[in-house]
Input
Amino acid sequence: MAGRCITLFMWGYQVSYRIHIRSLVHEVLKHLGAPAEAEVLLVGARKPTSTSPNPVCVEPEDGKWPLALFDNLLDSVESTYKDHDLQSMFYSDDASMHDKPEWMRRDSVRTSVRNALKVFDTEHDVTSLCGEVRRIDEYYVTTVIQIPNSTFSQFPPLPDRPVDGRRQGYGYRSLIHAALFAVLHEATKELQNPDPGRFTHGSVRSAQEVIRVGARNFLHTPGLSIGRNYFYNDLFDALNLVASLMYEGTKSVGNLILVNPESECVEFLARFSEPVPLHEPRWVRKVLQMASTGMGIVADSRHIYGLGKLKDSHDAYAAQDAFTATFLDHYHWELRCGDQVLIRSHYGVPKLPQEPFEKVAFLANYARLFPRASPKDGLHLWSLLLFQMSQQHGSMVVVAEDALSEASRLGKQGTRIEPTRLTESLLRSFSCIDGTILLAPDGVCHAVGIILDGEATDQCTPSRGSRYNSGIRYVQTSEARRLAIVVSDDRTVDIIPRIRRLVSRSKIEQHVTSLEGATLDNYHDSRNWLNDHRFYVNAEQCVRVNRSLDRLDSMPREVGLLYIRTDRFVVDPEMDESYLTD
Output
């Protein structure tokens, strides 16, 4: 077997290490609900006493990040080290004084690498996040995550704030930042192990665990922002616990306003004589019950001070001095700064704020499923979907091209009505009773409270309720075109058949072309992306992808190289050009 020669060699498992961290980054982004589009690279700066021939090493060494980016890296490291803030710092213990030079060098490498990547970031419209530096043999190594700025356009972070000498800072700017720095923390821990990247299974936390760590870290941001003296607490777990508690059979619904209680932006309606400790969840839940529409409970990072609200004239987002935790339903809450939602948590699972479905994808799928419906009909159904999701109880709406005849056939299992265009007010009334609301594609309602029929399919599952399974049976066993919108009691929303996102035609072609020129060292990125987007690959591209996979399968591999064969691509019969953009 042919072995792989690493020209920019730092250690023997640098390739598998990078691939493993990159896979973790993608899993984290997917679980958060963000596009899984990010790159990972390693940069190694030669230690001062080394005789290694390469001053700087980059992994991967395929030219995507040319060495020219780091031509002056070692000089920058030495200059940063010489002027480092810790140079004049004296510690009272000998161990810290002994470790101080190493701390300064690690930080100098990280700062210099971050500065060296600024030009690349600007030219490629990405943001580079650098992990802590560790020394491996002859090199000081940092792990770098690069994420497209388009991700931050889709999920805007809080504006940057000047730290002004504050040691604690103001916290992470977004859940994405917090989660990716949690990944970098795992990457740094792995660098401290012998032969990092050799044993990847179980060596770092799972994506779900990393996200929870990131969410906990991000929830320090309100406390750090609203006062100069912040006492660290686990606000993420505290909010989850309060959201999970019932009060005399009622769910947690209301606002908790995180703000400096002495701030002029707060208008108290009732102030407690003695503050309520925020770490007493049952007490907090009891107080939350008093918060009605238009007011909330006013708290900082430690106590609740009373009932009140923010003044209408105050711009909390611009000032970043007030945050609102809104309890939406049982075990369901979100954190806002002004009108911007920063994080949502449902049953303890943190997510980025977003609609369950993309509007453009919904309208495209609706037009494809019901070609006789007008664009206005699709927009009308979209608005009804949003209203249906906002209600505090479960419901189901079925759109069927044979709605008129189905209303007649199922009339004994519900209530037929004169054809009436469904409005939000009617939807509110009709969804108060059991059964399904039956519509035609133009939004005209023909029956309410309908009990659906249909035979069980492979997609029915005992893990979901009767509403979901009846929607599956009714839609999938019919030759007529139908669509079901199912909102379960736990606020889970499903559209049957499922809505597929639109995908860029040029991006598919880009990854197909990349795979055609790939080697065993760099095939992973394109192969993984195409594997996740099989539905969108056309017949001609399937042939090219399969030819590339055959070529990779036949390549000689060094002993011990992990290589996973890929199932061959076939055209999905439901795929057509309407799923593609540009």
User: Anything to note?
Assistant: Residues 14-218 form one domain. The mean pLDDT is 90. The chain has four domains: 14-218, 226-351, 359-496, 505-581.
